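Supplementary Methods, section 5.1.

A reviewer requested that the exact input to the structure prediction be made available. We therefore reproduce it here, unchanged from the version used in the analyses.
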Amino acid sequence: MPQRILVVDDELDTLMLLRVMIEGSTDYEVETTSNGFEALKILKGKDIDLIISDLSMPGLNGLELFDEVKNIRPDIPIIIVTAYGSLEIADEAMKKGVADFITKPFRKDNILFTINRVLELARVQRENIEQK
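The structure derived from this sequence is encoded token-by-token as follows.
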């Protein structure tokens, strides 16, 4: 069964771009939503392996979504994507445990490399936990 990625961004163009980039170049399945609250509903109803979320969204921003996800499924890695990246925000995100922080505009090879690296790290961590 292919791994499933949930992409959350209030910009519909970014959602479509990421879906095309990921599904066109990998075996991953992509779910999308433009709303952090809807992302939580999807997470409760489907098996998700990775979340890619925009930082700045109305209602529930990327770091708030991260906090909520960690209460529901602490094992899911989250990549934060933003057009408004600053060292302070990136530092805060990484200290919280965000898997990676990518600034827009991003390159296809960069986002695919990051996805593969984060999913591989999550797989190794699961295996280590299972072996204990």
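The radius of gyration is 14 Å. These observations are discussed further in the main text.
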